[in-house]
Specification:
It contains seven helices and eleven strands. By secondary structure, the protein is an alpha+beta fold. It has an eleven-stranded mixed beta sheet with strand order 1-2-3-4-11-5-10-9-8-7-6, sandwiched between helices. Strand 7 and strand 8 form a beta hairpin. The termini are far apart. The mean pLDDT is 94.
Length: 247
């Protein structure tokens, strides 16, 4: 598999979950947003990334000025960078799988109870916060992130008896549909509700011309991995993880 395709996927994922501030430092994409989300508060490896030794000082200063620790994010298809971090005194954490689904194989999904919006309506956000509570700083960062999505997107939720039980959103970039923020009420899991909301997004993406979809899920989340496999996300493209300096 060619790395240029994997970089397309990476770029689509960055775009689907935008950060408040981006700065390239020695070929590393330094993203920051506040809150606790590591994806938008880390230095991301790119094709142009230079040696770790050249970026540590400037990146550490960049994050310190924003009250954040230095955190690197690497991808498994650039093992030389991970090896350099390991030798340089950093330790990995939070391994995540990037999965792919072929939208041409996506089946039709019953969407009668799935509400769909082109923007993150306040009701959708309120349901997201109810189903997945956040600390105030993280909620503020999440709300800011949603307002910065600049590509075609769809926000969906499954509603039963006037109450949202499952929701997600999808963003479309460079022919790739990225699925984000999938969450289901714990009392209603195992009934196919996540499949309905994700399936509705897959149908929307295919209708918009996307050939494939991807999503990212923690490697240790076995129930989620099983669910997404059933939905067609059968191919693992690559993994990513974060690196902190060993204290």
């Amino acid at each position: 598999m060619r790395n240029d395709f994997l970089w397309r996927v990476e770029n689509a994922c960055w775009t689907a979950w935008p950060s408040a501030e981006d700065k390239m430092i020695s070929g590393w994409l330094c993203r920051t947003s506040g809150g606790e989300t590591r994806r938008t508060n880390s230095a991301n490896v790119t094709l142009e990334s230079c040696s770790i030794q050249e970026v540590i000082g400037p990146a550490k200063k960049f994050y310190a000025e924003r009250g954040q620790p230095l955190l690197f994010r690497t991808v498994s298809f650039m093992p030389e960078i991970e090896q350099e971090l390991s030798v340089g005194g950093f330790a990995p954490e939070g391994e995540t799988c990037t999965l792919e689904a072929d939208l041409s194989k996506a089946g039709e999904t019953e969407c009668a109870d799935v509400e769909s919006y082109s923007k993150p309506m306040e009701g959708w956000i309120a349901d997201k916060l109810r189903l997945s509570p956040m600390a105030p700083a993280q909620e503020a960062a999440y709300r800011r992130m949603l307002t910065r999505i600049s590509v075609p997107a769809r926000f969906v939720r499954f509603v039963e008896n006037g109450k949202a039980l499952s929701l997600a959103y999808g963003a479309l970039f460079d022919g790739i549909l990225v699925i984000e923020s999938v969450v289901t009420d714990p009392a209603h899991r195992g009934h196919g509700l996540a499949g309905k909301v994700v399936g509705s997004l897959m149908a929307w993406g295919a209708d918009k011309g996307a050939a494939l979809s991807c999503l990212q899920v923690e490697a240790t989340n076995a129930p989620a991995l099983s669910l997404y496999k059933k939905l067609g996300y059968e191919t693992e493209l690559y993994r990513y993880q974060y690196w902190r300096v060993i204290q």
